[in-house]
Amino acid sequence: MSEILERLRPLFYPEGIIVTGVSAHPGKFGSASYHNLLRFGFKGELYPINRDGAEVLGRPTWRKISDVPSGAADLAFLCTPASVNEELLRECAKVGVRAAFVASGGYSEAGDEGRHLEHRLVALAKELGIVIAGPNGQGIVSTPISMCAQIVPPYPPSGPISMASQSGNIGASFMNYGVLTGVGFSKGISCGNSAQLELADYLEYFGEDPETLVSLAYLEGIDDGRRFLEVARAHSARKPIVALVGGVTERGKRAASSHTGALASNARIFAGVCRQAGIARAETVEEAYEVAATFARQPLPRGPRTLVLTVAGGWGVLTADACIQIGLDLIPLSEDLREQIDKMVPARWSRGNPIDLAGGETRDTIPEVLELTAAHPDVDAIVYLGIGIQAAQAHAIKSGPFYPDHGLDRVVEFHERQDRRYALAAAEASERHKKPILVASDLVHTDRAYGNPGPVGVKESGRVAYPSGHRAVRALAQLVRYSRYRQRLES
Amino acid sequence: MSETLSEFESKRLLSEAGIPTPAERLVFSPAEAVLAAEELSYPVALKLCGRGIAHKTERNLVRLDLVDAGNVRRQAEDLLAQRGPDEAGAGVLVSSMIHGRRELIAGLVRDPQFGPCVMLGLGGVFAEALSDVAFAVAPLGPSDAEDLIDALTYARVLSRFRGEPEADREKLGQILQTLGQIGLDRPDIRSIDINPLILVGSRPVVADALVEVEANPS
After folding, report:
1. In chain A, N or C: fewer CB atoms in 10 Å?
2. Which CATH class is domain B102-214?
């Protein structure tokens, strides 16, 4: 096993966890973390520490860390005040703990006194041979072992994304999108103050972790830029990193006597770092998540040649504009495709790219066109717009006064079946031809409102349904860029 | 503390590293200026040149396209007369005129997190107003240099453009890689400005440069 996998194993795959500061008061961080570990079914052993040995959540606790059987716990989750953590860490070491996540605040974020405590904590951890995550962090998630060691949820569904965040709440946002869309996480960690372990360590771990297909990072600052670049390059050579960067703007320019210095902002330098390390940089939380989820679930496109398929005009026009603007290649529709589609729908269809069927489609048209275009050698990627419309009509009928009479039951059943079929056909054609097919519709959220079988079907296929053509196009452009990066490395 | 090498010293440093600079001579009298001009052949450019002399355009210390001995003599006299009290050691830099319609800016800066970083931008007098620049962390391999060129928003002015040939991207890439290497090899160099880096036809040539070095503590 590689060094980094071994070093961070007790953080992400602990066999037993000591949780400090577990009180009978359910609002305390220690109690909340203990609750979340139990609630989401942690597969290892838990050792909640309570000074009085009081029952918590109807379960016994341990009065002292020294009572925990030696070697039973390899991770400590510390929610206790900074002033007592050194003592607790020593006791943890005595019973064989190898890693600690320090959720407690009161460290370097809290001024000089706290900074001093943080230095002491790191020095002690080093002396004891314990690795420290945090302090002042929200927690760790590891879905392969059902671990939600966090002072607040969310606990996302399992999946191939792993996340490290320099902000606990942005990390939570990423995982909330996982809950919403269904494309889940393998691991997640909030870096806290990064006193010892830092973002680059987690990325190095994810880069080698076989459960991780894509890493998602939120960062506000990098201490050791050259190490970050080295780790990111090694990671990107195998699998993608998506980064959202905060607090790095055109401000922060250096006081400089040279033109070059005056033009060197943190934002521009970091843009260069991302380009050199193949990092997909997102502008917003939702974009960062969607790009990561796209990497997680779609094949990489071989090139930028994109086809837009729509059932209605405006979406197609805007999405085509977005493709051109972002530098995707909106290819002209090849003659053979045009001839084949001519045979399938009435002449009012667009006869170009975007393929706008203009409502002329019948029962099998969409699955057939998806298959036809995905199979075509001119096409690297497809954006398919308008899923869920038929099922939306079905919902209007179903919730109205005429249903189920007048044959409406049959039409509802037909519409719902069709939309679900379209979603699955898109995923199947994508997998069969190893080309990304991104499904976008403003109806994505109706999966929750009334179980719209279109977006529900996309979710069942394991993929993200994008809320707009623009968002699908932005994600696709990142895949194209990363694919080119990899192709060049490998050539 | 840092100090700025003279334009002559800065260009010599770049030229020794393999970056193309125009033929030039540093002289200290109008008579020498004329000799240098004859040797280089007309037209020539004259600039006041000494350590710490920056903002030459703003101070009107640049005389371009001089085509005869009389003019060179007069302009050299005038430039030498404009030396400030701290600039007694300054001379006149006589250079072959280089012509090109496309001006770039290139440089080196040290980032506190990422160390030496190379910059490329659209340059000349509009460099800071346009702010079309991009950076790459040193060292730069050939593909880093290629990507740095393509990272410019208006990279297309480097292709065939209104009668100008396509820029020699390989030579430009070599300049960028060399700047990165200087950044790694010479920790005493704080920054480098090449502004403008003029495209003479397709060929990038350093028209002006300033190298900022750590001041010698002695």
Report:
1. C
2. alpha beta
